[in-house]
């Protein structure tokens, strides 16, 4: 299986789906990560440093490729949506993934919302090589902070056992402590190591697992001759 994880910022891919990405990669699936923004320009950070951390995190997770669109952090909503769709479509055309992981569409972070909207266009089910499955992941410190109104709440319906890869996810997050500001914070911040483990344990308990990452299934198209997309 070929898998594309799409993230607005460096670290989103690890926060939301790092355990699942690692599990898939270690099972022999080809996993790519595509990051839309530099994750630093809005905070006057060092752009190359953010990229280096993302590449190191990808190496820890075991992915085959980490690529960057290079848009300015926290400015995706100022761009025509087609500008954000185009690099995502390019990755999809090159990899032809059967599974795409992306942000939840109602995250409090505006870049996340734009990436979700662009991904929905880029993965529309057109043609025999279109993406078969699209799922949204939860990004701690963004998804849970959305206003608690109907449609805004992340309601997972897919749980992936990350019992064997939770430690790898946390190690990948450690690569982001080397950024100019450090993306890992002390507990009780949602992006602390303790909180990330607690979140995984909580999702796991909801599904009868020791640790899990949860997703919302947006679309699943299983064509004749395909054996499914279980992680």
Helical residues, percent: 25-40%
Bulk shape:
globular
Spell out the helices and strands N to C: EHEHEHEHEEHHE
Q: How many β-strand runs? A: 7
| Largest sheet properties | 7 strands, mixed
Mean pLDDT: 91
Which strand order do you get reading across the main beta sheet? Answer: 3-2-1-4-5-7-6
* Strand residues, percent: 15-25%
Radius of gyration: 16 Å
The unreliable regions are: none
Class computed from helices, strands and strand pairing: alpha/beta
Separate helix tally? 6
Ends apart, CA distance between termini? 10 Å
Give a short synopsis of this structure.
By secondary structure, this protein is α/β, with parallel strands linked by helices. 35% of the residues lie in helices and 19% in strands.
Task: Explain what the structure shows.
- By secondary structure, the chain is of the alpha/beta class.
- 35% of the residues lie in helices and 19% in strands.
- The protein is built from 6 helices and 7 strands.
- It has a 7-stranded mixed beta sheet, with helices on both faces.
- The mean pLDDT is 91.
List the helices and strands and how they pair.
Layout (H helix, E strand, L loop, with lengths): L1 E6 L4 H15 L3 E8 L9 H15 L3 E7 L9 H15 L3 E5 L6 H13 L10 E5 L20 E4 L4 H9 L18 H14 L5 E9 L11
Parallel strand pairs: 1-2, 1-4, 2-3, 4-5
Antiparallel strand pairs: 5-7, 6-7
């Amino acid at each position: 299986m070929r898998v594309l994880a799409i993230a607005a910022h460096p670290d989103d891919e690890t926060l939301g789906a790092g355990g699942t990405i690692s599990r898939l990669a270690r099972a022999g699936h080809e996993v790519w990560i595509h990051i839309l923004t530099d994750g630093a320009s809005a905070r006057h950070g060092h752009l190359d440093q953010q990229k280096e951390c993302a590449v190191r995190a990808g190496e820890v997770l075991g992915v085959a490729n980490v690529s960057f669109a290079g848009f300015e952090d926290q400015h995706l909503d100022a761009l025509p949506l087609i500008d954000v769709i185009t690099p995502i479509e390019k990755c999809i055309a090159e990899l032809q993934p059967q599974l795409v992981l992306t942000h939840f569409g109602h995250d409090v972070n505006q870049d996340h919302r734009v990436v979700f909207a662009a991904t929905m266009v880029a993965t529309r089910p057109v043609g025999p090589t279109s993406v078969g499955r699209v799922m949204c992941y939860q990004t701690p410190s963004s998804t849970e902070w959305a206003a608690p109104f109907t449609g805004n709440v992340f309601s997972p319906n897919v749980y992936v056992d990350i019992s064997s890869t939770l430690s790898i996810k946390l190690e990948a997050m450690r690569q982001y402590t080397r950024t100019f500001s450090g993306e890992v914070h002390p507990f009780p911040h949602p992006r602390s190591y303790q909180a990330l483990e607690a979140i995984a344990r909580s999702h796991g308990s909801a599904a009868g697992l020791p640790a899990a990452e949860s997703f919302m299934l947006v679309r699943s198209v299983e064509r004749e001759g395909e054996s499914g997309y279980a992680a």
